[in-house]
Amino acid sequence: MKLRDLLRKLKGERLGFDSSFFLYHLESNSRFEPVTSAILHAVESGTARALASILVFHDLFLRLSRSNPDATATFEALLRNFPNLKFVAIDEAIVTDAARLEVEHAVSAWTALHLACVRSGGANFFFTADRGLPALPEIKPIVLDSIQP
Prior knowledge:
CATH class: Alpha Beta
CATH architecture: 3-Layer(aba) Sandwich
Number of strands: 5
Number of helices: 7
Shape: globular
Strand order of the largest sheet: 3-2-1-4-5
CATH superfamily: 5'-nuclease
Order of helices and strands: HEHHEHHEHHEE
Distance between the termini: 9 Å
Oligomer: single chain
């Protein structure tokens, strides 16, 4: 799928991101950075709105604490204040939905929690690096390496 076609499709939609989306972007992964930058620009400009699980901060902390501990607080502040991006906390309803997703779609508990968080906010698309993620009736997974810059 071409990036420009995808960006047109995302107008007015709610997007969900897993941790890999942010990790690739923050690490300036040369393969994915043009894609993640364009999508984040769409969110920042209000063309689309986005959601992610609060678990993203766990994954960012783990990765950055090993490679660049001084950047952890900076990236957290940047993401928490990013326009049109909401981080969803985990509550009882999300845990219940995640358990259903895990059982019904054979996804890991971690992935199910990410999905349940963005589902709770009405995401239509879910950006991930996980090629094995099954399609869900209400959320279309978009694998990052399937997008051509």
